[in-house]
Amino acid sequence: MPLTVPKITGSEADRAEWLSKLVGKKIGKVNNATTFAEKNLPRVHRILRPDDGYRLDYRSDRLNVYLDEEDVVRNVRFF
Q1: What pLDDT digit, counting tens, does each position of 2-37 carry?
Q2: Dihedrals φ, ψ of 19, to 5°?
Q3: Structural domain boundaries in the chain
Q4: Which one, of 50, 48, 32, lies nearest residue 40 by Cα?
Q5: What pLDDT shows up at residue 21?
Q6: In the Cβ-directed half-sphere of 51, how many Cα atoms lie within 13 Å?
Q7: Which of 2, 28, 64, 73 is deepest in the core (most CB within 10 A)?
Q8: What value does the CA radius of gyration of the chain take, rounded to a whole number of Å?
Q9: What residues form DSSP beta bridges with 73?
């Protein structure tokens, strides 16, 4: 099945679509059953690990990808 990347608008529907694509996977160089290729994330994104510091500037089009201690995606949010 071909990879389809959701549009970026920051809506709850977009968030739900990204959640379904990313939660439980690692971010890496290729797409497979356990990994999502970073190159297929939206152009404006950031990957946040536990205890990472980050700026609080708001961008409705920025996808924030939250990883756990084992670098597995646990949540996503637009801001």
Answers
A1: 566 555 557 899 999 999 999 999 999 999 999 999
A2: -55, -45
A3: 12-78
A4: 32
A5: 97
A6: 2
A7: 73
A8: 12
A9: 67
Amino acid found at 59: R
Q: What six digits make up the tokens of 3?
A: 């990879």
pLDDT at 61: 93
Instruction: Write down the pLDDT at residue 7.
Output: 54
Instruction: Count other C-beta atoms under 10 Å from residue 78's C-beta.
Output: 21
Those residues whose C-beta lies under 8 Å from the C-beta of residue 46, and which sit 6 or more positions away, are 54, 62, 63, 64, 65
Predicted pLDDT at 11: 87
What type of residue sits at position 10? Answer: G
- CATH code of the domain occupying 12-78: 3.30.10.10
Q: Label the pairing between strands 45-48 and 35-37.
A: unpaired
Asked if 22 and 76 count as a contact pair (C-beta separation under 8 A), the reply is yes
pLDDT digits (tens, 9 = 90+) for 31-63: 999 999 999 999 999 999 999 999 989 999 999
